[in-house]
């Protein structure tokens, strides 16, 4: 028995019919990374389960987040006059980030190599990718920090939301068209950031204080590239593909309302979290940026995972994620000052969100493992008793 049956019988039936369909047209991915991953996967033992590869890669990103949380919890270590993050941490971050990216690329190849491809593998991969967004963004933020030479915590908050919505766009697109169009920005950003970590270890964070073009700093380039890429490439292409399907009557859902329904919960989450940020009596984002980002990123991952389940099972997306229901009174308690210790409230709510998301993930994995009669982290067959 699963801990809780989050996946309905209708969705299980949909998973039985699921066929993977994706388009990857990024030259970096097609001509460089895929040949590299094809080379790497040959060195992996055939008994190694693809989901274990996926999980190991994800844990490298979590390890990066935890390392930087230890040395730069408040995102101030990169500022002038502060004790900087040790160089070896940036070396480790660069290696771990590239390892995570590589393992994310070879897990599917290992599945095909061992004839163990299942819908659970894709769901597990994309589900962890949705959570990895926050660990990736928060770790990169430590390069620039939040003070004079860095990026304001409020600016980074909105940049985080741009990254999160860019991620969900691909799965919203697949929810409507049945095809996953892999974004170009992912591969480019992973290779670039891995190199930036290593360069930072050599030249120091002071390098990023200097202007890179005229009077614009590297921090400005960092923000500019993320925002421009999202609004000039990712968003227009997703809208184009969905609207093209709508005009040709090939969408999987019958109306524009149904097509855009998956955005309801993410938008409500944005409204709730931004309300907390703007109306916070103690300016909670300035006090606890790392924990607030973690709360938002984890809640968003939970919403996204439920969309991925619906997208893969070809079922209707839920209009409202249940996690937003208790979040509403939490935000009200915070902004009205009813709870005096806002930091404690944030920590408690973040713990609830993280534990709820882990519970959801474990339950879904167990339920699908039982349904397909497989083991999530082993290629051995489960006992028949």
Automatic annotation (TrEMBL):
Which EC class is the enzyme in? transferase
**What GO molecular functions are on record for this protein?**
ethanolaminephosphotransferase activity; metal ion binding
State the source organism's domain of life.
Eukaryota
Looking at the keywords, is Protein biosynthesis present? Answer: no
Entry's PROSITE patterns? Answer: CDP_ALCOHOL_P_TRANSF
Record-linked InterPro entries: CDP-OH_P_trans (IPR000462), CDP-OH_PTrfase_TM_dom (IPR043130), CDP_ALCOHOL_P_TRANSF_CS (IPR048254), CHOPT (IPR014472)
What reaction gets catalysed by this protein?
Answer: 1-O-alkyl-2-acyl-sn-glycerol + CDP-ethanolamine = a 1-O-alkyl-2-acyl-sn-glycero-3-phosphoethanolamine + CMP + H(+); CDP-ethanolamine + a 1,2-diacyl-sn-glycerol = a 1,2-diacyl-sn-glycero-3-phosphoethanolamine + CMP + H(+)
GO BP terms in the entry: phosphatidylethanolamine biosynthetic process
Give the residue spans that cross the bilayer.
Answer: 52-73, 85-103, 123-144, 150-170, 221-243, 255-279, 291-309, 321-340, 346-365
EC numbers, comma separated: 2.7.8.1
| GO cellular component terms, semicolon-separated | endoplasmic reticulum membrane; Golgi apparatus
In which pathway is this protein known to take part? Lipid metabolism; Phospholipid metabolism; phosphatidylethanolamine biosynthesis; phosphatidylethanolamine from ethanolamine: step 3/3
Keyword Hydrolase appears in the UniProt entry = no
For activity, the cofactor(s) needed are: Mg(2+); Mn(2+)
Task: Tell where it localizes.
Answer: Endoplasmic reticulum membrane
Q: Which family does it belong to?
A: Belongs to the CDP-alcohol phosphatidyltransferase class-I family.
* UniProt function note: Ethanolaminephosphotransferase that catalyzes the transfer of phosphoethanolamine (PE) from CDP-ethanolamine to lipid acceptors, the final step in the synthesis of PE via the 'Kennedy' pathway. PE is the second most abundant phospholipid of membranes in mammals and is involved in various membrane-related cellular processes. The enzyme is critical for the synthesis of several PE species and also catalyzes the synthesis of plasmanyl-PE, a lipid required for proper myelination and neurodevelopment, from 1-alkyl-2-acylglycerol.
Its protein name is Ethanolaminephosphotransferase 1
